[in-house]
């Protein structure tokens, strides 16, 4: 049973597997699945406000999720290549775990982009609709990491450190039993939740296209960069791990995008009532164009119809 000892440290025995008859399910996998479902449900109305119907939205999402799995695995293996040199086939054994969240986001973009082109959906329009749901999905997914005590970091005496138990944990607990380590999944959960709150607040009003996407890249990039100092990932002698270098590049690119696009007009799409865009040719017609082609002063009232 989970027990928390706040103001000192957090202590509980992780739950690594849930038995369902002959099957064993990881709470980590459940957390990821629930995060995807919750995030997608949140994004769907935002996509509809941008003229993206549910069929096209889910078609792109399906390919993006497929790319996310591949990208997440490739990024993890690339950052831990030394672990696989003796047995390269282990790179394909993804069921053993080993995924990179940032690699998954990159893979989702690469796999989803051709589908966006095929459906004629502007890239930034789709991503602006998606990023609040992505942030929420990350926060929800991290609950599964907490349940199995995954992504444990460096030893600490921080109040919210995780006390190493006597039982197996999702990732190695590199401190003596009874002493604490950083629980970086908890930091990421809090950071992603704050990013979600920020994006939800910004989305209430029309913003320039790509504004929400760049804000997500900047804010979550900062979260991952800072969080990386508490992790145990390989730095290859650079002082920063692979996720930190990726996060730093994203932060710089996102900040540049916000500076370059800050003077662009708002898209006219917001989450407040009455701010949904008007689709179709009539959206560009002013009052003086409403009866284009009719002689001035002529009665243009509709003719009665017979309904049979």
Which strand order does the major sheet show?
A: 5-7-6
Global shape: globular
- Span of the ends, CA to CA: 69 Å
The structure class reads: mainly alpha
**Biggest sheet features:** 3 strands, antiparallel
Helix content: 40-55%
Mean pLDDT value: 82
Q: Could you state the order of secondary-structure elements as H and E?
A: EEEEHHHHEEEHHH
What share of residues are in beta strands? 5-15%
Low-confidence blocks of residues:
1-8, 273-308
How many distinct helices? 7
Q: Nearest-angstrom radius of gyration?
A: 24 Å
The total count of strands amounts to: 7
Give me some keywords for this one.
disordered C terminus; mainly alpha; disordered N terminus; globular
Describe this entry's structure for a reader.
By secondary structure, the protein is mainly alpha-helical. The chain contains seven helices and seven strands; from the N terminus they run E-E-E-E-H-H-H-H-E-E-E-H-H-H. It has a domain at 7-52 and 121-273. It is 49% helix and 7% strand. Strands 5-7-6 form a three-stranded antiparallel β-sheet. Strands 1-2 form a two-stranded antiparallel ribbon. A two-stranded antiparallel sheet has the order 3-4. Strand 1 and strand 2 (9-11) form a beta hairpin. The chain is globular, with a radius of gyration of 24 Å. It starts with a strand and ends in a 47-residue tail after the last helix.
